[in-house]
Every structure is written in C-alpha cells, then in structure tokens.
C-alpha cells in the first residue's frame, strides 16, 4: 500500500496572519473561510496543501522537528521578490549542485527555499 503526502497541518496563534503569509509569499490559494476550525490553503502548482489550525495555548510552536521546503528554480530571484514583499531570508547557501535559504513563518516554523529539485546529474 502506498501513501502520498498531500496535506500539512500548521498550528498557528493568529490564523489570518499565517494564512496571509503563505498566500502572499508562496502563492497558495484560499477562500480564507474557516471550516471545522481549519483554513485550507491550496497549492497552485501541485504539491502538498496546507491546513491552518488554531494552536492551543499549551502548544509550543516553532520547534525544529519539521521544516517546510519549497522548490524554486532560481533561489536568488525568489529572494529578491520575497524581500520586495517584506519577507527576509537568511544567507543564500551553496550546496552540492543547488542553493537554499531559510526563514521563519509568523509562528516561528522553519521554512526553506531550495533549488535541489532542479539540480542536474552533472551538478551533483
């Protein structure tokens, strides 16, 4: 039996702020409507969707157990566009045939943008 990752649930202190973050900076589509306490963000280009759920006061957010990684072909270009929208990333890193950079969402969850999915055999 196979399983496909299709949805990621993010616990948020301020749901509208978190929804706007992923909509504005990563292009997710949403009605913003809360259904059963969840706001759905749909990926435009395939990939996993996000459900934003209200975090209980007891939930400790921003741990390093999970990191969302977004595939982008041109990391430097994405960084420029993100900065123009007010989203600041850390340093641009060069890895084995690809680049990546890191940031945090409004709830302090780790996020990476990476060109790893686009590297070629000759760049590895």
Which properties best describe this structure?
alpha/beta, 2 helices, globular, 4-stranded mixed β-sheet, 18% helix, 124 residues, 2,3-Dihydroxybiphenyl 1,2-Dioxygenase, domain 1
Contiguous runs where pLDDT drops below 50 for at least 5 residues: none
Do you know the CATH topology? 2,3-Dihydroxybiphenyl 1,2-Dioxygenase, domain 1
How many discrete structural domains? Answer: 1
What is the highest CATH level, the class? Alpha Beta
Query: Given the structure, what is the number of helices?
Result: 2
Backbone shape: globular
What is the arithmetic mean of pLDDT?
88
Q: Give me the CATH superfamily.
A: 2,3-Dihydroxybiphenyl 1,2-Dioxygenase, domain 1
String of helices and strands: EHEEEEHEEE
Number of E-state strands: 8
Main-sheet strand order equals 1-4-3-2
Distance between the termini: 32 Å
CATH architectural label = Roll
Q: Helix/strand-derived class?
A: alpha/beta
